[in-house]
Amino acid sequence: MPVKGSTKLKTADVVAALNASRGLVTLAADILKINPRTVYKYAAKNKEIKAALESHKSRRLDTAESRLWDAIDGGEAWAICFYLKCQGKARGYIEKAEEKKPDTASTQAATDAQIASALAGAIGRIGKLPPDVAGGPPTP
Q1: What gap in Å lies between CA 84 and CA 81, rounded to an integer?
Q2: Res 5 pLDDT > 60
Q3: Which of 24, 27, 76, 99 is least surrounded by Cβ atoms within 10 Å, i.e. has the fewest?
Q4: What are the Cα distances from residue 133, in Å, to 125, 126, 129?
Q5: pLDDT attached to residue 56
Q6: DSSP of the chain, one letter per residue?
């Protein structure tokens, strides 16, 4: 394996390190004694290294999905809930009901009507109050 400071890594060495680390770039970089960014740079330029990275990423995703299905099959409520929240949105399985915003004009009109009604009622009640409560001079 190349050592830190060497000028060029062999494709086979990088792929072998990725295979040994199951595609975990930092661990592969540790094996190669290089910076993880260097592994990504090599992958950007080399189809074989890029394919190895993508293959391991896909395998990890498949493993996680398989374990999720095991949990679902085992009746684990958290797994069932997680799956439905992520994949069942089209059937209405969502965390929080999405609120539809009402039409602004109709909301404003209803609000204006409510204010006018409340104001008329308040004015009527003020006329029936004693002068000191209604804002007139206090009664002796």
Answers
A1: 5
A2: no
A3: 99
A4: 11, 8, 6
A5: 97
A6: ---TT-S---HHHHHHHHHHTTT-HHHHHHHHTS-HHHHHHHHHH-HHHHHHHHHHHHHHHHHHHHHHHHHHHTT-HHHHHHHHHHH-GGGT--SSPPPPPPPHHHHHHHHHHHHHHHHHHHHHHHHTS-TTTTTSPPP-
